[in-house]
Amino acid sequence: MIVCANFKANKTRQETQAYMAVVESFVSANDISDTIIVFPPYTALEHLSRNVLIGVQNAYPVRNGAYTGEIALEQLEEFDIKTILIGHSERRHIIGETQEQIAAKFRFFAEQGFVIVYCVGEPLAIREAGHDALMDYIDKQFDGIDLNYSDLIIAYEPVWAIGTGLTPSNSDIEQVHRELRSKTAAPLLYGGSVKTDNAGEIMALENVDGVLVGSAALSANDFCEMIVQASELNG
Ligand code: PGA
Asked: Which of 154, 175, 229, 232 has the most CB atoms at less than 10 Å from its CB?
């Protein structure tokens, strides 16, 4: 299983250090073999961990240069960051990233050999328009994306489920994941209002290889609880 925490614009450097201390010692003490990835804010980056992968929530697809307000490959290399989240719905819908920009970012970081957690997901109106409309929408989010990239992880995150406490039914998750599985061999995560109460159940679904968790992962103890639920599914 793959269990990811996306901090978004939450936590200071100090809070992140305290969080990582809890998660890191939990992972070693419990011999966790699952892949654990934490995406802290840039300001908390440092050589944070040995047994948890640290990724960035975004970066600009260049080595360095005149891109005010962005950070790029050179700044990531300083911290040995080789994992990136691309296509998150908040970047698509709030920041306004286009599919073209997202695909350019994907190409650049794939060329650099990054582990890419690539997010797709539909807004509510599309979900309400039915399954075909939903899959057409998601297909467009794969424009310019190499679904055979070897270090690809896909996260299916319905926009209306992110941070809302709403989740699709288990069979709706399975239906979308089954279609995603027919398109790619990449591990498939579900994200959107995952919490300790539902993480185990969601990870047990067919073609679900892990979860990407926002708000509920801000508590290190809750995140560890979800890691346990993942590890219990291994045996
Ligand atoms: P949420 O966010 O768990 O708070 O719904 C998930 C995400 O945005 O990755």
From this structure: 154
